[in-house]
Amino acid sequence: MNAKPDLAWDDFRLVKAVAERGGLTRAASHLGINHSTAFRRLAQIEAGLGVRLFERLRTGYLPTPAGEAMLAAAARMEADVAGFGRAVAGHARSPAGEIRVTAAASFVRDLLIPVVARFLVRHPAMRVDMIAAEGALNLSQRDADVAIRASSDPPANLVGRRLSGIAWAVYGRADRETERPDAQRWVSLAETVAGGRFAAFVRARTEPERIALRLNTVDGLREAVGAGIGIGPLPCYVGDACPDLRRLGEPEAELQAELWLLTHPDLRHGLRVRAFMDFAAEALLPLRPRFEGRG
Predict the structure, then answer these.
(1) What structural domains does the chain harbor?
(2) Which intervals hold domain HTH lysR-type (predicted)?
């Protein structure tokens, strides 16, 4: 009678990493082990199971049906582990420990750091891991516990509250007031930002050859406008705060967004998350006129 293979969670992680990264070298680097260890362990797993988990091709490692089955099991196990972590975090007895918060870099620098400073005074047993990122992180996998995001359509799998509208307008350098906007070059957010709607806004207002620079961050866009590279759209709470910039018109309705404070449903009742979200909302709601371009 054949003995059952003795599989561990690390075996499933290895198979998942190899499948997702297409080979042993990148998988080993991702897992923090050397290539020979990964090679030896994969051979042991396949020997124990009596099947090949991957076809070794010149282009990389391709999962066999057995490999696909193990990969699916690994994904379910990873989801269970992440769910357990959220459940434990949700049952903390007091607002103490670490909370991971993500927001756009410009928002972190201009508005969120003072809020966090006051939060830590009120809750000295808390620690904040701040992740300044333009893209959305996976709150289901606990890449972050709380997200503060500009969005017109927040993910359906998250919960939270709308804090404010976010107005955008076109800005230029304040010392170029006599120059006509239609005679200036433009700077723009890249096509990869917000589904390309800001890039489309700029394209509709000038010729392609007059778009001098594209960037993937609002911080970079503000610096580009301030440097005189061109005019461009900015959130009003960013542009209005810069004395060297001026609005070139009213807020643009088609660029209107919303500011959301979001978390995963499994975390919303945890004391750490609830303490931060309540505090952040209390601090940010009075800034609504600034976000909406009215202050």
Answers:
(1) 9-89 (1.10.10.10), 92-166+257-291 (3.40.190.10), 168-255 (3.40.190.290)
(2) 7-64
pLDDT in tens, 14-48: 999 999 888 888 888 888 888 888 899 999 999 88
Q: Which residues pair with 231 in a beta bridge?
A: 186
pTM (two decimals): 0.64
Contacts 24+ apart (CB under 8 A), 221-228: 221/187, 221/188, 221/189, 222/106, 224/187, 225/171, 225/172, 225/173, 225/187, 226/173, 228/173, 228/176
